[in-house]
Amino acid sequence: MTEPLLLLYDEIFLKHETDSLEHGSRLQAIVGELKEYGLWEKVPRRRPRQASRSEVLLAHPHEYLEALQAFCAAGGGVWAEDTVVDRDTYDVALRAVGAVLDGIDAVMKGVYHRALALVRPPGHHAAALRGGGFCVLNNLAIGANYARQEYWLNRIAILDWDAHHGNGLQSFFYSDSEVLYISLHQDGLYPYTGWATETGDERGKGFNINIPLPKDTGDTGYYYAMHKIILPVLEQFQPQLLLVAAGYDAHFADPLSSLALTSEGFGQLAKMIKPWPLVAALEGGYDPATVGHAVAATVAVWGELPVAVTDPAAPPYAPVRPTQRLRIDDAWQIQKKYWRL
């Protein structure tokens, strides 16, 4: 019988010291809340393997890996913009990639419907030859290419709900019609990319969807974007595998965004995409008091467990304003050229 959800986690992810908001206490908070809600004991867990060099080469060239390994071995330091590494980072990053690949294997072999890799460092800002935004290796880009190589997939969708645009993910598949990239992100945040007019190039035209959102979008604004654009597109594309860049920094308490999503809202997003075989990897989420609740809401839905998750504090009131609908409708108008919307 196929199980609903597999969690992939290793305490090695608590290493990789950064002196930034992206640190091991994020994962400690997440694991703590999963235990508090009784989810940690109910959902199967696995310690992931370390990805091989040949697997990482599916997205990053040899010279990048050589430079990263040598830099970490020398003690680390500032590797890229907003990205600090230490002596452990190279091995930790390989384990994060391995978690995604193990999740893909588990789902594609029919053992689990879904997998969630609770990893760090995150990956969606990393391009082929550079890191950035706390990211070193692009976990999901490697995962997408691995799924194509190992399982002969030609319809992979990536849904990136991190508050920041996944410029690295976009760069890998911008001219590719086999990988559909969709990003919901706050307009004007780092890395200052992800315009609605960035729709792909050459064979990939129409397979890159950016939905920049204004601040205070809130749950109802996200639901509007999902039903107006994302769910109809996924229904038409019919992905053989859905990869999720699961950032939780769109939460109303997060210090790095102003999107005002609640933990219940994250649970609803998880429910909307539940029908597809999916593998998710942790990206952002930087408020230790709330990130665990948001992840728990996701785990409860994907694990098909009747657990009610609530935020520790009341969210701000965030109605759908005309300006929010207009921004989403702008993206809808652009995507109507490529999809039946």
From TrEMBL:
InterPro entries: HDACs, His_deacetylse_dom, His_deacetylse_dom_sf, Ureohydrolase_dom_sf. Pfam families: Hist_deacetyl (PF00850). Residues 22-300 form the Histone deacetylase domain. It comes from the Bacteria. GO terms for biological process: epigenetic regulation of gene expression. Belongs to the histone deacetylase family. This is Acetoin utilization deacetylase AcuC. It comes from Carboxydocella sporoproducens DSM 16521.
